[in-house]
Amino acid sequence: xxxxxxxxxxxxxxxxxxxxxxxxxxxxxxxxxxxxxxxxxxxxxxxxxxxxxxxxxxxxxxxxxxxxxxxxxxxxxxxxxxxxxxxxxxxxxxxxxxxxxxxxxxxxxxxxxxxxxxxxxxxxxxxxxxxxxxxxxxxxxxxxxxxxxxxxxxxxxxxxxxxxxxxxxxxxxxxxxxxxxxxxxxxxxxxxxxxxxxxxxxxxxxxxxxxxxxxxxxxxxxxxxxxxxxxxxxxxxxxxxxxxxxxxxxxxxxxxxxxxxxxxxxxxxxxxxxxxxxxxxxxxxxxxxxxxxxxxxxxxxxxxxxxxxxxxxxxxxxxxxxxxxxxxxxx
Length: 331
Hints:
- By secondary structure, the chain is α+β, with helices and mostly antiparallel strands.
- The chain is 28% helix and 34% strand.
- It has helices at 3-15, 21-31, 35-54, 57-77, 90-93, 267-278, 304-314; strands at 96-99, 119-122, 129-132, 138-141, 146-152, 157-169, 177-181, 186-199, 204-217, 223-227, 231-235, 241-245, 259-266, 281-284, 293-299, 317-321, 325-330.
- Helix 1 (3-15) crosses helix 2 (21-31).
- The two termini are 35 Å apart.
């Protein structure tokens, strides 16, 4: 285990009350080694205090368990090339949170203090993050996705903005609107559960409703569509908007549990998901394979090699592990 991961785990065990006497001596020696280490240690402690305010106890417990599991996987595989095998401390596992007027300092003592503040949350590359907004709404934020949130007193509205993918369960408040801004469109929530993908670089937006009701507003705040459960609104790169029914609406939030189901996906699409999930380059050696379609399920909790082993058994594909990439090719 590299030094930084070892120390991060010790800090986590210390905060969780699980550290033993030998481990505590190792941590103390590291803290006293340099001023830089002391600053890093104090920032970790401040972060845990902030997380206790923002995140649900269940989310924190789950992330701590993933941290331990990730370290075990790292020791088993003995590889720092495939970063997907490694979960770092809770500070990286959950989010990097930036408040408008403070940065993880100990003055955050009550959840209500955040209501009138604007803040931004970024999920780590290693996996989705789950947290609760000050109004009680629950959000799952996918890998590397960003969400900003603020309460606007003038319009008495709760306003969020995303870049990437998020699944929302909104706390109902008939006297206070909830808006989620994405690329060129805003979702107006009427009490609901929905998934939203927004990508300003690709100039695309997608909203899938699982429960409740949402309206789609354009840049002039005019409602252009109202979704029913099981419907998906999307805007492509050309700006064309469509609404379609989803075959299995419950699958839209599977990614929040680390489960990704592909029913008729190209190898390029599957390889792209593997690459983002495990943070490793996936190369398709044979050009003719790129557009072949497959049906499979990826479980994030499994290592990339275990996933490819299972995929190889049921398909005509083989794989080759290199120093910093994996190559897919025909058998």
